[in-house]
Design a protein that fits this description.
- This protein is of the alpha/beta class.
- The protein has helices spanning 13-16, 38-43, 72-75, 80-83, 94-110, 113-121, 145-155, 184-188, 209-212, 231-240, 280-295, and strands spanning 5-9, 27-31, 46-49, 63-66, 86-89, 137-141, 160-165, 176-179, 192-195, 218-222, 243-248, 268-270.
- The two termini are 21 Å apart.
Length: 310
């Protein structure tokens, strides 16, 4: 793949400074995403950024690199498979960040933080023993790099960790991995459910009445994509006790509209998509590493499989 002209969507000149020596044989053009023109796209061999511009189309470049881990905003544009354009995504320490996020809320639940804070307010001394992580069963939807790191962290505490994936392939750190079609036995015995799933045609509204009715007072955490959860069915599951609490970092529409019922529920914790924020330096580093692999004609581990959507 012959890459000479690289269009960077965003005024990131200062962030690229430490990489310019590495990129000296390439021509770089920095342009605000909303200012990218047809001429910019005609000039470019590669497009790099967090989001496609209005002038972007896959057929206009040989390679596109997303600064995000998720690429649904790029895949929403038609023409990828016909263009033969390579699409890669940023692979960074998202798994570590999300594992810390999930662990923090699981421990908050097991250690009875909410109860103890209420007792402190009432000056009530009433000990309640924390529950142990080793006694919990946790099912993670998505056993890719992110899900695998979360499983590694949780299994390190002796937790029983199950996985649900499209392939059902067994992986390290999971006691068992099932395909969605055979996931019911794992879901039914889970104390915690964690979704790390990307947005694809198969995962959109995956968490609906069919899955929630299998739960029994489970704790639900979504760090994948908001569109993977049918909000109406989640609310029904909360009301019926199938889900005792939901920690939601992602939503179908972001920012979450102020009119949403979720804001007012005590059994819902809302965070503003911060479980694994993309560090720009990490994103640029991943871009440079991917460019090196392209130069060497090596396999790209972060290349998007259009049939899967990630």
């Amino acid at each position: 793949m012959n890459i000479q002209n690289i269009l960077v969507a965003g005024q990131y000149e200062s962030a690229f400074q430490q990489y310019l020596l590495h990129l000296e044989k390439y021509s770089l053009r920095f342009q605000s995403t909303d200012m990218i023109s047809e001429d910019d796209m005609e000039w470019a061999d590669a497009y790099v950024g967090f989001a496609p511009s209005n002038a972007f189309h896959p057929s206009k470049v040989r390679w596109t690199h997303a600064f995000n881990a998720g690429v649904n905003n790029f895949l929403s544009i038609d023409g990828w498979e016909k263009s033969n354009t390579t699409l890669t995504r940023t692979v960074s320490d998202f798994g570590e960040k999300m594992s810390e996020y999930c662990l923090s809320y699981i421990l908050k639940d097991l250690q009875h933080h909410k109860l103890l804070q209420a007792q402190q307010k009432d000056k009530l001394w009433s000990p309640k023993a924390p529950a142990a992580l080793k006694d919990q069963t946790i099912t993670i939807f998505g056993t890719g790099e992110t899900g695998k790191v979360i499983a590694k962290v949780l299994s390190g505490f002796g937790t029983t960790v199950y996985g649900i994936s499209s392939s059902g392939e067994n992986k390290q750190y999971f006691k068992q991995v099932n395909r969605l079609e055979s996931s019911k036995p794992l879901i039914e015995q889970s104390d915690y459910i964690i979704s790390t799933l990307p947005l694809t045609q198969r995962t959109e509204n995956l968490f609906n009445e069919q899955i929630f009715r299998c739960l029994d007072n489970a704790y639900f955490i979504n760090v994948g994509r908001g569109q993977g959860v049918d909000t109406k069915h989640l609310i029904n599951a909360l009301d019926s006790g199938k889900v005792r609490h939901a920690v939601l970092d992602v939503f179908e529409s972001e920012p979450l509209p102020k009119s949403s019922e979720l804001w007012h529920r005590e059994d819902v914790t809302i965070t503003p998509h911060i479980s694994a924020l993309t560090d720009l330096d990490d994103a640029i580093s991943c871009f440079c590493n991917t460019l090196e692999n392209i130069e060497r004609d090596e396999t790209l581990s972060n290349q998007v499989d259009f049939s899967k959507g990630y």
